[in-house]
Write a structure and sequence with these properties.
The protein is mostly helical. It folds into 2 domains: 83 residues, no CATH class; 232 residues, no CATH class. It is built from 11 helices and 5 strands; from the N terminus they run ααααβαααααβααβββ. Strands 3-5-4 form a 3-stranded antiparallel β-sheet, with no helix packed on it. A two-stranded antiparallel ribbon has the order 1-2. A hairpin with a 2-residue loop joins β4 and β5. α6 packs antiparallel against α7. The radius of gyration is 21 Å and the shape is globular. The N and C termini lie far apart (50 Å).
């Protein structure tokens, strides 16, 4: 038995994708700790006090530290493990296209929650109450939206970033989707009022976010959906994965009836209604001809030998190699 084959892929001579993912996670956690210590020290130095344990900064600093740490290590891993440029991580900004993906995804995330509420409303399982608008509402909703955007970036970088992508190149989409969705579910097991159905729905949501990345080719679309989903729940004062935030918004929704249908104390994510919506989305994302074709295996980032004048479909270079991304001329999601 060739023990080197356990670590190295004999076809490419590279470290196998599973080991690349493990090294990446360990290095990212270490880098996150370093960034967090630095950021916390800077906060204390300039404000002469550590952030209170329940303050907005106490939540913001670790999440931003994790984003910075995981992205930094991802860029290094892409360069030395995959021989790919940072562009391929999916967080690049190329004009307005990624802004459209972010805002469009945000709208889709809001739409998922509205679809569930529209199913429950005719069944008399949800009622809405209006409250007089105050400037404090705008501030609270704005801070909540910003916080959930950062949370969306953090969770998508963690679960659909380099870890997802390097497994994708080694194990293929099916195994990668199942594994990362399972890890995404495990990360929410400690949430209050969790149930078996809630866990199944979070697993389905992880599949949806992974499929969005596969069909679009960047992380901005799943980030937008993730953020829009949470902000919509926040706006209607519905528990978010079992967590209730005490804020005031112009509209509040009261959910009644069977928790099997509505999700009960866990929120809409714990009910059968959102299961149906998520299963419909998964079917659409895997069967409809929208976005990058799944059968093209575009995520392999096929490399070609250097030429003086690469064809226009070759999007970028690193060192002396050219990489092909979009195998079809049309723009994704058009």
């Amino acid at each position: 038995m060739n023990w080197f084959s356990i670590w190295l892929d004999p076809k490419t001579g590279r470290l196998r994708s599973g080991w690349r993912a493990v090294v990446y996670l360990i290095a990212s956690l270490f880098m996150t700790l370093m960034v967090y210590i630095t950021a916390l020290s800077a906060y204390t130095l300039f404000l002469h006090a550590p952030p209170p344990p329940t303050s907005y900064a106490s939540e913001l600093i670790p999440r931003l530290s994790a984003i910075i740490g995981f992205v930094m290590i991802a860029v290094v891993a892409l360069r030395y493990f995959e021989q790919l440029p940072p562009y391929t991580l999916g967080l690049h900004l190329d004009g307005g296209r990624q802004l459209v993906a972010l805002t469009g995804g945000f709208g889709l995330g809001v739409g998922i929650i509205l679809a569930v509420l529209l199913i429950l409303y005719p069944l008399h399982l949800v009622t809405f109450r209006l409250a007089p608008f105050t400037p404090q509402m705008l501030q609270e909703v704005g801070l909540g939206a910003a916080g959930f955007l950062i949370l969306g970036v953090f969770e998508e970088v963690l679960f659909r970033g380099y870890f997802f992508q390097t497994l994708l190149r080694g194990a293929g989409p099916f195994v990668t989707l199942l594994l990362t969705a399972a890890l995404f579910t495990a990360a929410h097991l400690g949430n209050p009022n969790n149930t078996l159905l809630a866990g199944a729905n979070i697993f389905l949501a992880g599949i949806v976010f992974g499929c969005l990345y596969l069909r679009h080719g960047s992380l901005w679309l799943p980030i937008g959906v993730h953020a829009g989903w949470n902000v919509a729940l926040l706006f209607f004062q519905i528990p978010i994965s079992g967590i209730t935030l005490a804020i005031t918004t112009p509209v509040s929704a009261t959910i009644t009836g069977s928790s099997l249908i509505t999700g009960g104390a866990f929120g809409l994510e714990g009910g059968v209604c959102i299961s149906c919506v998520l299963l419909g989305l998964i079917y659409a994302l895997t069967h409809l001809k929208v976005g990058l074709p799944l059968d093209s295996n575009w995520w392999e980032w096929r490399d070609f030998a250097a030429t003086r004048t690469p064809p226009p479909v070759w999007d970028f270079t690193i060192d002396a190699r050219h990489y092909q991304w979009k195998l079809l001329p049309q723009d994704p999601l058009e």
